[in-house]
Amino acid sequence: MANTYSPIWFDLFLETQPYTQAEVAFVERFLPNPPYACVLDVACGPARHARLLAELGYEVTGIDIHEQALATARQ
Q1: What is the overall mean pLDDT for the chain?
Q2: Which carries the bigger pLDDT value, residue 11 or residue 23?
Q3: N or C terminus: fewer CB in 10 A for the chain?
Q4: Contacts by 28-37, CB closer than 8 A, 24 or more apart
């Protein structure tokens, strides 16, 4: 079976991610804006990292295979 997506991950873990702020702080510390103004968020889900990075002034492009997650991210 090739790379299938399971929405169960979102139900089980998405709302319990206490590390998002620390992960964004890590990016900000090691890839400061400027000079690193653009970020590619692979497997962005509903954009929990992308949203915070955009608030810090980064230009963020998010990609994901799950259409509902992308729809949520666009909102």
Answers
A1: 86
A2: 23
A3: N
A4: 28/53, 28/56, 33/57, 33/58
